[in-house]
Amino acid sequence: MVDGGLFFRGACPPGFLLWPGGVRPYELIKAKRDGKRLPPDDIRAFLQAYTSGDVPDYQMSALCMAIFFRGLDAAELSAWAQAMLHSGEVLDLSDIPGTKVDKHSTGGVGDKVSLSLAPLAAACGVPVPMISGRGLGHTGGTLDKLESIPGFRINLPVSDYRRLVRELGCCLIGQTASVAPADKKLYALRDVTATVDCIPLIASSIMSKKLASGLDALVLDVKVGSGAFMKTQEEARTLARTMIGIGAEMGRKVTALLTDMNQPLGRAVGNALEVVEAVEMLRGRAPEDYTEVTLALTAEMLVLGGKADSLDEARRKLQAVIDDGSAVRKLKQIVEAQGGDPQSIDDYGRLPQARSTLEVPSPRTGFITGIETEAVGLAAVALGAGRQRVDSRIDPAVGFTLLRKVGEPVKVGEPLVRIHFNEPGGVEDVKARLLGAYSFGPEAPAPRPLILERLE
């Protein structure tokens, strides 16, 4: 008998653990594959065994694929989320004054909102304990962007995390070994087994990681469209309601905005390039779409954090900390406290720079009618800005500047995109991918709303 009630029958190899009553991981995988309900105790035991290494990746992959096709009912999802949350340490920040509020995005292309949102909220007095993730599939990751700032440390002891939330009002880290370790293992596995875009797995991953970080309230940015995991508003609404339900069950206030991801957010795609755009947003000089989504989400944080009585009042406070420079100063404080180079926030030349650029010319005259955003994200991965495998190295300098976006006019031969690259091999393939992502027409399409829906 071993911890958690698991036991071996003879010298069973990993993957053939038995629960009391003789239930094997194999049988749970088969049951879910066949559409049967999994008992909560068996879900908890399976996740505990996977976290400890007694269930191998290939069996967890099989179960995730079965869940992808068969789903989890409310009781199964509750057990799965609770097991993920309690697979490690659940931080208690109740001794830090104020309502601790975080934001989570379900992932998009060019989505650097967290980089500007966190210092904005902290500058307005909302404590932001932010545990973020890396890129998944075609989407970028907050941690990868932060690590493009020279020296920035995303791996801090819990004691430093608590101290910085108390002293600066913000800390931006990755998952520690002790916080939601089941999610940390599963997060990387889902990325390479085509099980990222699965509502039960997305919801439990997000909520277990976020609730373990010590927050009191959460704002969700659920992306919708060609560059999101949720392609339709109905799917996004289902995901948002699932996460709101998990939060309510665990005593947390959760608000969700469904936001458009039918084209990249802002103009920059790529880690260091997105850091520059995020800093420019704090100076009031970023693209309108990125600025609007950031302000909308941060305003929700101020209301949940009790720093504004209405969204309008929150907007005024956010504009004030942009205008007086408080937001940029807060970012510099965070960067310096986490070992990064604060001068890079003023001197962008200190950030990683690509050695070469190449402009992609438009093949037509007319208007940009659409951008296949997932294709842009996959082109960024192919260039080296994202991961094709768990152990892939990211080049923080490479990426794209979108010179034309949906609704804008273009003439044949004018540049659509500027590619920033270091290695010339594969650039022509990336160029072809980007050209294939753009569509053209004789007239500009009707503008799409950025904020599609609000749920609470």
TrEMBL record:
PROSITE patterns: THYMID_PHOSPHORYLASE
Catalytic EC class: transferase
Entry GO CC: cytosol
Gene Ontology MF term list: 1,4-alpha-oligoglucan phosphorylase activity; thymidine phosphorylase activity
Family: Belongs to the thymidine/pyrimidine-nucleoside phosphorylase family.
Residue ranges annotated for the Pyrimidine nucleoside phosphorylase C-terminal domain, each copy included: 367-441
Subunit structure: Homodimer.
Transmembrane segments: none
Catalytic activities: thymidine + phosphate = 2-deoxy-alpha-D-ribose 1-phosphate + thymine
Key words of the record: Glycosyltransferase, Transferase
Top-level taxonomy: Bacteria, Pseudomonadati, Myxococcota, Myxococcia, Myxococcales
Enzyme nomenclature, EC number: 2.4.2.4
Tree of life domain: Bacteria
Protein name: thymidine phosphorylase
InterPro entries per UniProt: Glycosyl_Trfase_fam3, Glycosyl_Trfase_fam3_N_dom, Glycosyl_Trfase_fam3_N_dom_sf, Nuc_phospho_transferase, PYNP-like_C_sf, PYNP_C, Pyrmidine_PPas_bac/euk, Pyrmidine_PPase_CS
Gene Ontology biological process terms, A to Z: pyrimidine nucleobase metabolic process; pyrimidine nucleoside metabolic process
